[in-house]
């Protein structure tokens, strides 16, 4: 298609007098005008030159105007095609418009200026369609660009979140390792020393020792994952008794270390079994503690 500043007009008309009048008139307004006297030649000129506007008669030798309309519309639905006819009926008008005609003028055309008005109106409409299409394509490109940018930002944020989660996970693991180290040192070093020391001190000193042991249990409780929710309900004395049972001490030995009676030891054993949910008497408490409680040996 030629430059829009010099629009090209294709006239398909077998009335040579009318065709020359149209050609002469539009050339005075700086249009390039192509002319074909039959439908087949006119369609060939269309595909060769792709004009800006096509003016066609309906009744043509070789190929009628409806067929021309159909083929041009199939090739370029936005190309203006104007129909002129002197013998058309209402049905012809309806059929032409359905095939894509932009306007329909009845012969004889008393003033070519009426045809020029239709042509210029069609060119303006075509220009707006082209601009709107270009604007829409530009918007689609911008939307695609912004969408891509957002996807990249989202991916960057996700990568940062993954890295942050990894850092937080590493810090949490480090914190847990420190906590487990504290718990292990308390249970393996300090608590056994307290248990051995208990048999050598008086009652007042034992109370101070009980308070110290209670505080140590509170410090290590958050890190003692193996104890479970039920075992964490054991009192400090019950935890000490559980420690001794785990070490394989008898009730008499536990009573001597803790300075309590054997009956009291038995009472603590029953309480420990109840809090640990050991309702089956066949379950050995020492075996269970070896499996489920991470209690170190006092040796």
How would you describe what is shown here?
There is one protein chain. This protein has 299 residues and is an alpha/beta fold. It has 2 domains: 8-110, Response regulator (Rossmann fold); 182-292, no CATH class. 65% of the residues lie in helices and 8% in strands. The protein contains 11 helices and 5 strands. The chain has a 5-stranded parallel beta sheet, sandwiched between helices. Helix 2 packs parallel to helix 3 and helix 8 packs across helix 10 (262-275). The longest helix is centred in the middle third of the chain and has 87 residues, at 112-198. The radius of gyration is 50 Å and the shape is rod-shaped.
Supply the number of structural domains: 2
Shape: rod-shaped
Structural class: alpha/beta
Measured on Cα atoms, how large is the radius of gyration? Answer: 50 Å
The helix count comes to: 11
Strand content: 5-15%
How is the biggest beta sheet arranged? 5 strands, parallel
Order of helix and strand elements from N to C terminus: EHEHEHEHEHHHHHHH
Euclidean distance between termini CA atoms: 101 Å
Low confidence ranges: 295-299
Describe the strand arrangement of the main beta sheet, using strand numbers. 2-1-3-4-5
What average pLDDT do the residues reach?
A: 84
Strands, count: 5
List the helices and strands and how they pair.
Elements: E1 8-12, H1 16-28, E2 32-36, H2 39-49, E3 53-57, H3 65-75, E4 81-85, H4 90-98, E5 103-106, H5 112-198, H6 203-220, H7 228-231, H8 236-246, H9 251-258, H10 262-275, H11 285-292
Parallel strand pairs: 1-2, 1-3, 3-4, 4-5
Helix pairs in contact: 2-3, 5-6, 8-10, 9-10
């Amino acid at each position: 298609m030629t430059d829009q500043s010099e629009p090209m007009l294709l006239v398909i008309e077998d009335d040579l007098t009318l065709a020359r009048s149209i050609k002469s008139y539009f050339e005075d307004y700086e249009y390039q005008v192509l002319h074909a006297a039959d439908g087949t030649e006119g369609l060939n000129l269309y595909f060769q030159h792709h004009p800006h506007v096509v003016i066609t008669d309906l009744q043509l030798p070789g190929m009628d105007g409806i067929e021309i309309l159909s083929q041009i519309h199939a090739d370029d639905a936005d190309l203006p095609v104007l129909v002129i006819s002197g013998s058309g009926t209402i049905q012809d008008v309806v059929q032409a418009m359905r095939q894509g005609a932009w306007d329909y003028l009845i012969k004889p055309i008393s003033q070519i200026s009426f045809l020029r008005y239709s042509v210029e109106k069609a060119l303006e409409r075509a220009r707006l369609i082209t601009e709107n299409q270009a604007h829409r394509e530009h918007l689609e490109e911008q939307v695609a660009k912004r969408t891509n940018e957002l996807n990249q930002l989202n991916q960057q944020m996700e990568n940062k979140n993954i890295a942050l989660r990894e850092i937080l996970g590493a810090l949490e693991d480090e914190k847990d390792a420190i906590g487990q180290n504290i718990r292990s040192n308390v249970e393996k070093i300090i608590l056994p020393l307290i248990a051995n020391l208990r048999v050598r001190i008086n009652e007042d000193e034992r109370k101070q020792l009980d308070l110290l042991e209670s505080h140590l249990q509170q410090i290590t409780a958050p890190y003692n994952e193996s104890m479970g929710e039920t075992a964490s309900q054991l009192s400090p004395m019950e935890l000490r008794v559980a420690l001794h049972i785990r070490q394989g001490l008898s009730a008499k030995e536990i009573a001597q270390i803790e300075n309590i009676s054997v009956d009291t030891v038995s009472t603590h054993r029953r309480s420990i079994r109840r809090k640990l949910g050991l309702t089956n008497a066949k379950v050995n408490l020492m075996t269970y503690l070896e499996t489920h409680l991470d209690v170190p040996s006092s040796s």
